[in-house]
Amino acid sequence: QVQLVESGGGLVQPGGSLRISCVASGFIFKFNSMSWYRQAPGKKRELVASINELGDNSKYATSVKGRFTISRDNAKNTLFLQMNSLKPGDTGVYYCARGGYYSQPYDSWGQGTQVTVSS
Questions:
Q1: Which of 101, 109, 62, 65 is nearest to 83 (CA)?
Q2: Are 70 and 54 a contacting pair, CB within 8 Å?
Q3: How high is the mean pLDDT of the chain?
């Protein structure tokens, strides 16, 4: 079965950086686009960034463009999100998803990793 295990979240001050990871299993990672979503308290889950199968094309939400970088290591079935210049509005639970670059992602989610930006 599909498994997505996110890690690397934590508490960081505004302006700080954090890198979160997602290890995938149960499907052929290198043949799938991947994406990162986040959900803030009381809000709907939103797409943050997505990346194609090879990792040479990516897309970003306007709110994170220029601050976040999505990447992948197909040899290790791992997806990354480097987050710089973090703002309190970036606070939320971050989830990785299978798919999401060309269309809606598959409806299979991990437990997520909490990112809190606060002084």
A1: 65
A2: no
A3: 96
pLDDT of residue 85: 98
Dist CA 89 CA 31 (whole Å)? 33
| Section 88-111 average pLDDT | 93
Looking at the DSSP assignment, which residues form a beta bridge with residue 47? 37
Question: Model confidence over 6-51: pLDDT tens digits?
Answer: 999 999 999 999 999 999 999 999 999 999 999 998 999 999 999 9
CA-wise closest residue to 94 among 32, 49, 54, 57:
49
CB-CB contact of 49 with 59 (8 Å): yes
Cα distances (Å, whole numbers) of residue 46 to 35, 56, 70, 76, 79? 11, 22, 15, 26, 18
Could you give the count of Cα atoms lying within 13 Å of 61 in the half-sphere of its Cβ?
A: 14
Rounded Cα gap, residues 119 and 52, in angstroms: 35
Q: Which residues, at least 6 apart from 28, have a Cβ–Cβ distance to it below 8 Å?
A: none
Give the 3-state secondary structure of residue 98: strand
